[in-house]
Amino acid sequence: MVYRRQTVVLIFWLGFLVVLNVLSVSSIRVNFDSKQIHFSTASQQSVYHDRKSLEELDNEFSEEILPIVKLFTDHGDLLQTTGIRCEVCHAIARHIKEFLMLNATQEIIIQEGILICSLLRLQTQRVCSEIIPKFGPWVITVLAHSVFSAENLCTKAHLCPKPDTPEKPEIIDLPAPTTENLSVSENQNGGDDQRIWVVHLSDWHYDSEYGEGYEVNCGEPVCCREPNAFGDKATTPAGKWGDYNCDAPKRLIESMLEFLPTAVPKVDFVISTGDLNFNFKGSLFLSYYICISDVWAETPSTITDNNNKTANIWRKFFTSAPFFPVIGNHESAPVNSFPTSSISDIASVSWLYSTLSSQWNNWLSADVLESIEKNGFYSAKLPKYKLRVLGINTNYFYKLNLWLLIRPREEWDPEWMLKWIIDQLDEAEKLGEKVWILGHMSALDQDSFPSMGVYFSQIVARYKDTIVGQFYGHSHWDEFNVIYDKSINDPSKDPEAVGIAYIAPSVTSFKNMNPAFRVYEIDKVTKKILNHYTYSMDLQEANRLDKPEWKLLYDAKSLYGLENLDPKSWHDLTEKFITDTNAYKIFKKTASRNHHLDKYGSCSALDTQCRNRIICKLRGTNSGHGPYSDNELCKKHGWFPHLPDDWFLNAALGKHVNVFVDLDKTDKDNKFKSMGDNDKDNDGDGITFKGLSKTVVRLIMRFVMGNDDAVCR
């Protein structure tokens, strides 16, 4: 608890100093405890709107607040505070917010942000000058209304009591099960006419500007296209059918869709689980916290244009089978920006929902399109199959959707989508229907708010007999999440596996994966998934031979020796991975579709800790939820840079220069001990920062690279 408090307070002050640094136009010096601290002042402010000037705020802060605070030791290793009281914390937070809320301040932040981005080479000058103006106002607005609110900051720093307002529930209200038995018998001997075949396509990341022969390592977030600094003399030219460092060209996508009839006896349904637009490659710091794509070119009009091009491809190939798409986090501009209707006075994404509704009208009914236009999710009923398809908007689960930070406190369920899901499931249960849930991101994904994983698992446990399929994407890996019933708290029994989230491989080859798609074989009567098949193309071979060959990579039952695809079978498979090295290696290799890197997330080693992290990820613990979260197998660990005690940071944040450290084996002074350098990952060009203390570096690296897969998806 002490360490956590020190961490929060350190981040609080670090954030404040960063704000002051960004705002600096001229500076003053304040002497305190034999230290010189630089503060900023701004001159010639033209618009104040009856607010204090930056100079007045600076003077107020230095005269009234600083005398109560001690800052750093000589090396900056520890942050000590004395006399910080709740009212003082509120004064500091209000001071920061007034900085952010000044209109002139926003202009300065954007200008200085472009300068810092360029000087530190976070991106090229061209990219910096476009990224900052697009993301600056969004981020500043969110920070001012949430992160830097006095209530939020001071409560998180444990300097003030929690506000006397309703908290999010731990257990949500769910209707009692129906007493009527509406189950259907198993169809043990059904032939092909008793099968439903579903094609699952995810994470297209179609790049309509991909150009064969252009530079792959162009130094900008999106390469393999014009313009680039290499002209026609690319040192690493992009291949005809794509590249492992870039997104999917049109010819790759069309070759896949042309192959579909060969792979599937008949296509009954097609589902697309989001992310239609191009991806991001660049500094890990930017990609993890902002997760930007080609943002200097992304506007509602360019997003609409790219989605139109994708929809035209769909219309060419999907002419008969029902087609159900859902929204990914890359569908908006700026990316990840999905405000709820409760804050429509600040921002709105209605333009996107209207656009997608018009683009998807070939396949969806009028009532479904109306629901999409309202809030981005829908329910489609298929009476012929006694089936209901719920296409949910998982951007309301997403941590990087910063608008969720400023929604009304009582709206713990964004857009009340979870309540809507419960209502749909309850109605389906009463009618004897089965339900498929489609979404871009699993609620148990590491990118999801932990509370959403808690709530969603409760829903799945309650309606485990009604929900017969869950289909997602987002991670780009070929993987799954087991969902457990946490309400059964019996240490003598294994947690009950009640659901399985099928996470499909990506169509795009970004990053270091072979393009792929999945097919499900489903019982027509019970709607249960009998098997699934992954098809992939060896991109390296396709470029070498100029001949794309899509092949069956594996089927789940044969590869893993599964008797069936029930949730318990998938849980048992994760148990098998603990002791069976060969089974584990097979899974890890297929996650990236047999690419020669044989890598799964940041976990490229075969040591026990690496394996445990993967198993725990499959059990959904990365979201902070699940009965295995507190299990010894899934104990949380941290990632820290390997630096001598007297060094200051001189490392690239775009690279994994770190070692694995067990937090329980640290000494009382929080001096971290190395346990070996097992998981180095030298992806990315990175950026060098100098002059930060080792403690601050560790904190930054922990937050930036603390997950198994800190790559924008």
Note down, in words, how this protein is organized:
By secondary structure, this protein is α/β, with parallel strands linked by helices. The protein contains 19 helices and 18 strands. The chain has helices at residues 2-23, 54-65, 86-101, 103-119, 125-147, 150-156, 250-263, 284-289, 300-317, 350-359, 366-375, 417-431, 450-462, 539-545, 556-560, 567-579, 581-591, 608-618, 694-705, and strands at residues 26-32, 35-41, 195-201, 269-272, 323-325, 378-382, 387-391, 434-438, 467-472, 479-485, 496-503, 516-523, 529-537, 550-555, 638-640, 650-652, 659-661, 688-690. Helix 2 (54-65) packs antiparallel against helix 3 (86-101), helix 4 (103-119) crosses helix 5 (125-147) and helix 16 (567-579) runs antiparallel to helix 18 (608-618). The two termini are 33 Å apart.
What topology does this entry show?
Elements: H1 2-23, E1 26-32, E2 35-41, H2 54-65, H3 86-101, H4 103-119, H5 125-147, H6 150-156, E3 195-201, H7 250-263, E4 269-272, H8 284-289, H9 300-317, E5 323-325, H10 350-359, H11 366-375, E6 378-382, E7 387-391, H12 417-431, E8 434-438, H13 450-462, E9 467-472, E10 479-485, E11 496-503, E12 516-523, E13 529-537, H14 539-545, E14 550-555, H15 556-560, H16 567-579, H17 581-591, H18 608-618, E15 638-640, E16 650-652, E17 659-661, E18 688-690, H19 694-705
Parallel strand pairs: 3-4, 4-5, 7-8, 8-9, 9-11
Antiparallel strand pairs: 1-2, 3-12, 6-7, 10-11, 12-13, 13-14, 15-17, 16-18
Helix pairs in contact: 2-3, 3-5, 3-6, 4-5, 9-10, 10-11, 16-17, 16-18
GO biological process, one term: sphingomyelin catabolic process
Function: Converts sphingomyelin to ceramide.
Binding site for Zn(2+) 1: 203, 205, 275, 476
